[in-house]
Structures are given as C-alpha cells and as structure tokens.
From TrEMBL:
<dbReference type="InterPro" id="IPR016040">
    <property type="entry name" value="NAD(P)-bd_dom"/>
</dbReference>
<dbReference type="InterPro" id="IPR036291">
    <property type="entry name" value="NAD(P)-bd_dom_sf"/>
</dbReference>
<feature type="domain" description="NAD(P)-binding">
    <location>
        <begin position="25"/>
        <end position="330"/>
    </location>
</feature>
<protein>
    <submittedName>
        <fullName>dTDP-D-glucose 4,6-dehydratase</fullName>
    </submittedName>
</protein>
<dbReference type="InterPro" id="IPR020904">
    <property type="entry name" value="Sc_DH/Rdtase_CS"/>
</dbReference>
<dbReference type="GO" id="GO:0009225">
    <property type="term" value="P:nucleotide-sugar metabolic process"/>
</dbReference>
<dbReference type="Pfam" id="PF16363">
    <property type="entry name" value="GDP_Man_Dehyd"/>
</dbReference>
Length: 359
C-alpha cells in the first residue's frame, strides 16, 4: 500500500549552522533515528547537503524518508557499510565533510542468538567506515551512535561518561568495541570522533521489534503482550525528537574526542509501559491487563537498569523537552494511524514476537 500522507519528523531544537559543515553523510538514514536526523537536517538546515546511506534492511524503510525525497539538498544512496570501496566513492563523490553514524544492529534480544552479526555490523562496519574516512582525508566531524548499555546495569546509581564500560550482552559489547576503535582512530589518524550514549529511544517510525511500537501494534490488533520475566526491570525512555536535538547540539558544538550521555528523567518499568499502552486503548482495569499479558522466560542476562548523568550534554544547551506521557501519546497515535501500512512488506499482516524487547 502506498503511503500518501506523511508528517515531517524533526528535532525539538537547533544549534547550528557550523562553519566547515556542508555535506553530511548519515549512515542508517532510512532507519528509525537516522531518518529523523535526515529530515531534521534537510528541513532545518537548507544550507547543508544530506546524503542518506542505507542498505534497506528489515528494520528500515523508504517510507521513513519519503517526506524529503526530491528535496534539492537530499540524496539517498543504497549501500553496505562493509563495502569499503563504495564508502570511499561516496565520500569523494559528494565531498563529505561530516558523518553521523547510526547504521547498526541494535536488538539486544537478537544479539544473544547471533552475536557474530553484531560484531560484523557494529564493529567491522564502523571500522570500514573509519577506514574510508581516513582515505578520504576531509572529515571534520564524526558523530557516532553508542548506547547507555556499554556501562552495564547501574542499580540506581547515576553514572557519568568517565565510568568504566562494563557491557553484559553481545550488543553492548559490540558498541563498546566500536567506541574503542573510534578512540584509537582519533589518536592515530585524527578521525574527529564524538560519541553519544543514549537512553532507550522511542517514537514514530521505529520498527516494531522494540518494546513500545511492538506492544502498541499488538494491542491495536487485540493480540496478547509477551513480557519477559515479571516486568519489573526499568528503562529510561527518551523521545526521538529530543535525541535528534542532542545530535544537533553535538554535531555543532560537541568536543572532538568526547562522549556525551543522552539522559532521560523518565525511568519506567516494562510492566508500567504495558499498562500505559493498554490505558491508551481504553483498557483500564487490572483484570484487562492480566488478560493481555503472557509471561515468557527472561533473557540469558537482563540488566536491571541504566541510569546515566546528562550534565555534560546540558552544558551544550540541550534539555529534555518531551516527557514520557506526551511522547507515548504521540507514539501510540502515530502507530494507530500508520503502523499497519508502514512496514507492510516486512511484516505482512502479523507481528512476529520473541519476548518483550526492552532495547
């Protein structure tokens, strides 16, 4: 089915433009966060040229960038991060000076069953990208997407960017390894890396393998919700428009060699996320909640929480503007309107579930 009505998706603030930034490559630009970033940059910064690179995997969609297709300052290129020669060609053809790197395998649940895929994409893919940038020799800003999960579980203690990384699952380990390579390439080859470690990101356009879109689409289709364990684990949820604003702040004002936590004040248990989604659909009673929930075995290892300090990013002028109730309302509304059609080719008429993916 053709998507005909699409609303623009942009961040909650802007911090540029910046001298020396003109031609920006966004990897994973047809995915969830990457497509929001592409739209934000194309619409908010008409002086920039945005090159969107994506291989179009099962979790990305051309629908995510349909709103900006045809804009004079936007180009879409299909390609794979592990094709170094193609990456070099793209960097040279479009005279790229800045790179924002979103492309990744990001499902913690899948990382337990296929960890090699996460090393291939998140470690080797990042390495090939930096090798291409080294050969190109013209990159002035490289913003890399990491995760709060590199710290491991924090047990309620808020950690800052200097805290030692202690990943507990293959996804988090692959992200930590990529960060180590970025640090080394900055020191060895002057690749100007900056890292963002985000709390759990949610919002319109996220493929429904993740908790909030998946539960929303299941309830919308009157299906049961599968919850790993008892649902007591908590995650700090941050709305995607605020995340895009954080990337804007770091692209324009961040310090090369630094890492920045993108933190949320909204720490919510998985059980409470399910309850709030059910309430959004008019299911208010405890009996209705229990009828919708199916318990499943927990992950091989499931971190209790990830609580991070965000003061360093706030020093750049960033602040959280969309809080959980508002963000969830916007997200549920979007999935009720677009969810069944957005990934029709990937999903068909069903959502295949393997437990409640917290991240």
């Amino acid at each position: 089915m053709t998507i005909t009505t699409i609303e623009p998706m942009t961040g909650t603030a802007i911090y540029g433009p910046r001298p020396g930034v003109e031609n920006i490559l966004v990897t994973g630009g047809a995915g969830f966060i990457g497509s929001w970033m592409c739209q934000h940059l194309v619409l908010r910064y008409p002086e920039y040229n945005i090159i969107c690179l994506d291989k179009i995997s099962s979790v990305s969609s051309l629908n995510n960038i349909k709103y900006i297709q045809g804009r004079t300052n936007f180009r879409f290129v299909q390609g794979d991060l592990c094709d170094k020669e193609h990456l070099v060609h793209i960097l040279k053809e479009y005279d790229i000076d800045s790179v924002i790197h979103f492309a990744a395998e990001s499902s913690v649940q899948k990382s337990f069953s296929d960890p090699i895929a996460f090393v291939d994409m998140n470690v080797y893919g990042t390495l090939f990208l930096m090798e291409a940038m080294r050969i190109h020799g013209k990159i002035t800003r490289f913003v890399h997407t990491s995760t709060d999960e590199v710290y491991g579980e924090t047990w309620g203690v808020s950690v800052d960017e200097d805290t030692r990384m202690n990943p507990t699952n293959p996804y988090a380990a692959s992200k930590a390894a990529a960060e180590m390579l970025i640090m080394a390439y900055q020191k060895s080859f002057n690749i100007p890396g900056i890292v963002l470690r985000c709390n759990n990101i949610y919002g319109p356009g996220q493929f429904p393998e993740k908790l909030i879109p998946k539960f929303t689409m299941l309830v919308n289709d009157s299906q049961k919700l599968t919850m790993q364990g008892n649902g007591s684990r908590t995650r700090s949820f941050i709305y995607v428009a605020d995340v895009v604003a954080a990337y804007d702040a770091v692209l324009h004002n961040g310090m090369v060699g630094a890492a920045y936590n993108v933190s949320s004040s909204d720490e919510v248990s998985i059980r409470d996320v399910a309850i709030e989604i059910l309430k959004a659909f008019g299911h208010d009673s405890q009996e209705e909640f229990e009828n919708f929930i199916i318990s499943a075995p927990d992950r091989p290892y499931n971190d209790n929480d990830y609580v991070v300090k965000g003061g360093k990013l706030k020093d750049l002028g960033w602040s959280q503007k969309v809080f959980f109730n508002e963000g969830l309302s916007k997200t549920v509304e979007w999935y009720r309107k677009h969810g069944d059609r957005w990934w029709e080719q990937q999903l068909g008429n069903t959502i295949v579930l393997h437990g409640s993916h917290h991240t």
